[in-house]
């Protein structure tokens, strides 16, 4: 494994309501120096949930994405509240976004958005044994629940309104988990 | 399909060397108004390449990620130069990052990073029929080429140094393409 670059100096260069940009000077082990910029997230992290509605269907949501200015098919997800456990955050987001809670949660992996330019990550959790339960979320309009067959995820990937890399990665991880090729960690209540 | 929200006003709220943050006011079809922020990328887009070294191995790189301040296993990728075709960008990045060019390129999909907060995307391209050829890139240190067995991608996903959502998504798309379940589009020279 290579020796990590030395961080010489870092400072905040831009900030808005939601985003913070940090600049930092690095010296690599071969002596080369570079200035990098990265996004630093606020908050307490975020979760993305792959929830099985039954043995054959996963829960997708259709929601408006302000970044791409269009509706998109993706997975339930959201920010973790201050002091909230990972499991509680997942169960709250499911109840807010698809109208179900779950009895079983399995931690799969922390995914990074862009390792080169962002320090943030999202925790991917698998959920099943769902029960109907609705919580009021902060969505500007109700989200549409779209059940999708696990056996037909390749057709989802081919759709123009399914674009989010993290969601496709999370679904692939869940498939590997269900096939017994990927180790998860049960989240106890 | 739902009617898209109306965009009432937008303006630049923060800017650094690499990042631009835009704020915009939206009115949803149910009358609810919200202020959103999103990252707007500069440049001409970016490519990520799933390249087969032979029938069994895909080309990974180990590189330093400034965002996560650590080395990470991911796919060759980079920005498209002004006026450069998608195919030429992929072939240049492969030569700079793994020391191979390719004779065959197949377009798979444009992946979004975060549909909620970022307008940018990355074009995922599959490549094979490689030939040795090295080009000088702008990397601060040489990247390490790591061949990985296609049959053992689930072990890659389980590694702590493989975190990038888009890379895992791109590998899953390539697997579906190779299995004949996902349609690609050959990029002609």
UniProtKB/TrEMBL annotation, chains A, B:
<dbReference type="InterPro" id="IPR000086">
    <property type="entry name" value="NUDIX_hydrolase_dom"/>
</dbReference>
<keyword id="KW-0378">Hydrolase</keyword>
<dbReference type="InterPro" id="IPR020084">
    <property type="entry name" value="NUDIX_hydrolase_CS"/>
</dbReference>
<dbReference type="InterPro" id="IPR015797">
    <property type="entry name" value="NUDIX_hydrolase-like_dom_sf"/>
</dbReference>
<feature type="domain" description="Nudix hydrolase">
    <location>
        <begin position="43"/>
        <end position="175"/>
    </location>
</feature>
<protein>
    <submittedName>
        <fullName>ADP compounds hydrolase NudE</fullName>
    </submittedName>
</protein>
<dbReference type="GO" id="GO:0016787">
    <property type="term" value="F:hydrolase activity"/>
</dbReference>
<dbReference type="Pfam" id="PF00293">
    <property type="entry name" value="NUDIX"/>
</dbReference>
